[in-house]
Each structure stands twice: as structure tokens, then as C-alpha cells.
Amino acid sequence: MSNKMITADWHMRSTVPSCLEMTQEQWMELQKKVLEEVERIAVENYVDEIYIGGDLFHSENTASNECIYLLQMFCRRMYDEHHIVVRIMAGNHDLPNHSSSNIPKSAIGVLLNSYAVFNMADGRIKGCNFDEDNYGDSEMIFKHTLTIPSRDKPDFMECETPETLLQKYPKAKWIFTGDYHRNFEYHLDGRHVINSGCLTKQASDFEDYTNGVYIVDIKKEETKFVPLDIEYKFNHNGQAKKELDETMEAFVAGIKKENVTLDYVSSLKNESKNHEVPVQEQIDNWIERSGN
Q1: How far, in Å, are 90, 161, 163, 177, 256 from residue 158 at the CA level?
Q2: The pLDDT value given to residue 191
Q3: Which fold has domain 3-227?
Q4: 7-16, 49-58, 280-289: which has the minimum mean pLDDT?
Q5: For 180-235, what is each residue's pLDDT tens digit?
């Protein structure tokens, strides 16, 4: 068999994205169903390897034991029951402080030391962790970097495009990317850039988006996007957004207090120092609550 499943950005998490209307138990059950759907697609398409290109977990704080266990059991079933190898690499969300040196302290580190979980280093195939760039002459590379189709790339945004990646890695025939949550594929002169998109819907602007995985026949150079048949119930009452806006406005109001200082920069530093929640933690909370 030469069929490979290409996927990334699973963002497994214990907390319910604020855009979804469900309990934590229902959210965990949904993630379990997603893994079962991936398993079904892999078996039906005669896949021999599954490549997960980073961001298996949403964050260090939300990678619960249950999330890790779901992934461990998924990899075990694929290997023992279907003889399918699962290969993984670390994305920016998987790495504390975005550093591969912290893998042993992370959930991705636990997973990499689990039964039937393999890394992306197999001869002509190479997948580097988020903060690494050691691809050599590999003809198939996995790179967890924000890559956007040229037609959709905003002028102000610094990111890769399929064209820039093909220029950067002239030896690569296949480049598989992650981090950008909408799927696309790009083909030029027998070379290919594939971005599989996110596996689950965790933001309000993805309500009409179709999640899925790619099935790639390396020998025939054929690709197929296979959608996931999972039903989501989105929250439309706007309460989550209202609460988020209120906390952000309160923080900004603190910076603008006249009795703090006349210097804006000093005001920002003082408010950051005195705020009951550290600024970075507060920003992380806003990101979590916005569903991203």
C-alpha cells in the first residue's frame, strides 16, 4: 500500500470551545467520535501510515489526562488492529514556550513515549518540530508553519505561501504543512504542497467549514480530501462574546486610569504588574474563551 493519511491541528483539549453549546462531557465524547471517524476513513482507504503534522493538543493547560489517553488508545488500535503506523511531530501549541527542549515536560512528550506512537523520521520522510528546520534532502517534509494560499494572504501578514516553501526546499517533492486551519492543496510541475486544515471546529467562523483529512497516494501522486461526518451545535446567543468583550474593556480601562501615571507606557506596566491575573495568562484566557 502507498496510501498515506495527512492531517494536522487536532487541538485536543479538555475545555469546551466557547463557540459550541455543549457540556464538557459532550465535548470529550465529540472528540472521541472524531478519532473514530478518522479510524474509519483510514481503514476504508487502505492507509498504511497516518501523519499528524503538529498541534495534537490545544495548549499545555488543557491537555488533560483524558485527552492523552484518547490519543494513546487511538494509536494502539490503529497499530494493533489495523497495522497502521501513526507518526507525529510537535507544533507550536504542543510546546511549552515554543521550545522543543520542553518536550519531555509536555503532553506531546508523554505521547511520544507511548506504545505505537512513532516520530516523523523514516528515511526519505522528515518532520521537524515547530522550532526546528533540519530537513536536508528529504523529498517528503512536514513543516508546522503558517502557510496560506497566495490568493488569500493579507499584505500585512508574515507567513509562508506554497510558492515560498517550494523555493525554500528545492529538493522536496511533497511538503505537508500545519497551523493554518483551512485545507488547501497546491501543485506545480510535479511538486505538491498540502495543508490539511484543522480536525475539529473550535471557532465561530468555522461553523460552515468542512473538516477533513487528505488521503495521498505517493506512487500515483494522487490526492483526495475526505470530509469528517461530525455534527456540531454552535452557540448563537452571543453571551460568550459579551463576557469576553467586558473583560477586555475592563483591562483597557485600567491602563487608562488617570491616577496611575501620566506616562502611557508606565500605566501599561503598572496595570500589568498589579492586575490580579498575569497579562500573558489573561491573554491566553481570552484566546481560550474566543474559541481559537
Answers
A1: 21, 10, 14, 16, 31
A2: 98
A3: Purple Acid Phosphatase; chain A, domain 2 (3.60.21)
A4: 280-289
A5: 999 999 999 999 999 999 999 999 999 999 999 999 999 999 999 999 999 999 99
C-alpha 234, offset from chain centre? 20
Give the integer Cα–Cα distance in Å for 272 and 251: 9
Distance separating alpha carbons of residues 54 and 60, to the nearest angstrom? 14
Backbone φ and ψ for 8, nearest 5 degrees, come out as -165, 175
- Proportion of the chain above pLDDT 90, given as a percent: 74
> How far, in Å, CA of 246 to CA of 234, rounded?
21
Q: Which residue, among 214, 208, 241, 235, has the nearest Cα to 226 in the 3D structure?
A: 214
Degrees (nearest 5) of the Cα angle 143, 170, 157?
50
How many CB atoms neighbour CB 177 within 10 A? 26
- Alpha carbon distance 101, 110 (integer Å): 14
Q: What's residue 256's pLDDT?
A: 58
Q: Where are the domains of the chain?
A: 3-227, 239-289
Distance CA 135, CA 119 (A): 14
Q: Which residue has the cell 491616577?
A: 259
pLDDT of 179 above 60: yes
Tell me the residue type at 204: S
User: Could you tell me where the DSSP H helices lie in 1-116?
Assistant: 24-44, 65-82, 107-112
Integer-rounded Cα radius of gyration of the chain: 21
Q: What's the count of helices (H) and strands (E) in the chain, helices before strands?
A: 7, 12
pTM of the model: 0.84
